[in-house]
Every structure is written in C-alpha cells, then in structure tokens.
Automatic annotation (TrEMBL):
Compositionally biased residues, Low complexity: 158-172
Name of the protein this chain belongs to: Receptor expression-enhancing protein
UniProt-annotated location(s): Membrane
Stretches that traverse the bilayer: 33-59
Matching InterPro entries: TB2_DP1_HVA22
Biological processes, Gene Ontology terms: endoplasmic reticulum tubular network organization
KW Transmembrane helix (keyword) present: yes
Stretches with biased composition (Polar residues): 173-193
Bilayer topology annotation: Multi-pass membrane protein
Residues in the signal sequence: none
Region (Disordered): 153-193
Keyword Transmembrane: yes
Gene field: Reep1
Amino acid sequence: FVFFSRLIFGTLYPAYYSYKAVKSKDIKEYVKWMMYWIIFALFTTAETFTDIFLCWFPFYYELKIAFVAWLLSPYTKGSSLLYRKFVHPTLSSKEKEIDDCLVQAKDRSYDALVHFGKRGLNVAATAAVMAASKGQGALSERLRSFSMQDLSTIRGDSSSTVPPSVTVRTSSKQSQPKTSRSASEGTGSSGKC
C-alpha cells in the first residue's frame, strides 16, 4: 500500500500536473512544479540511504507518505518552502564548485568510456580472431577425420555406390605399407640367411 501511495501521489499526480503546466505555458505553475521535482529528487536520493538505517523505525513509511503529501499540498506549499529556505541558497552558494565537479566528472567519464571502449574492441577482436583460427583448425581436423565411408553415409549413399577409383585408391594405400613391409621382411630374411 505504501509503495502504491507514493507512486500515485509522489510521482504520477505531480507528473500529470507538470504536464498541464507545460501545456498551459503558465510560468507560475512551471516554477511550482520544478521546485517540487527538485525537492522530490533530493528526497528520493536521501531515502536511498535512510531506508537502510531507519526502516525499523515505527511508522517510518507512513511518515514518508505524509512528507510527500506535505510537499504536494497547496496549503502548506512544502516543496516551495524547502526549496526557498534551504535548496536555493545552498545551490546558489555552491553552484560554481558543483559545475566544476560536473565538468570534471563528465570529462573523466568520457575518457574512461573511450579507454574501456578501445580495450573492449581489442579484446573482442582478439577473441574473434582466436575463435576463427581455432574454428578453422577444428573444421579442417573434422573434415580430415571423415573417411570416404563416413562421407557416403552422410550423403545417404550406401558403400557400394562409392566410385571404384576411390575404393581402389583407399585399398591400394592400405595394401602398400603391407606389401612394402612384407617385401622388406622378405629382403631382411633373405639377407640374414
């Protein structure tokens, strides 16, 4: 219930009225809703940390809903009050330092992005080349491992349809070492006697 209440009253309701302010081009409404969104952004940031430490506090979530209602109320004008009393003076006095930090962070993040992008491309290129070379080697090894019998069964042919020249070549290759062995054995045996 708490989540939906905050979603509806803290986000959707102000978003709709911000839309109406943009549509009507009323400067006073612009300023009102911009102050709300600035305060709400700060509240959301702060609650990220306070939720960790204060979630055990009784009625913590109900207090957060009451705070959002106080920010929205046209009678209390909570967001306007907080913005004018605290946020605007603080941001005005620290604006130069904040701008410098943001420029430095932007430059550093751009440099880091370029650096990691180059490294990522190098790693990807190296991986692609290695995969291609391993894949090519694996493919050629796989093709070498096939015998003509394997190839004929892949095509769906029987072994009798293998051309005779291939069969003869295969059988002549196999019989050559046997003949040369028997010839050398015969030569070796005749030389011994």
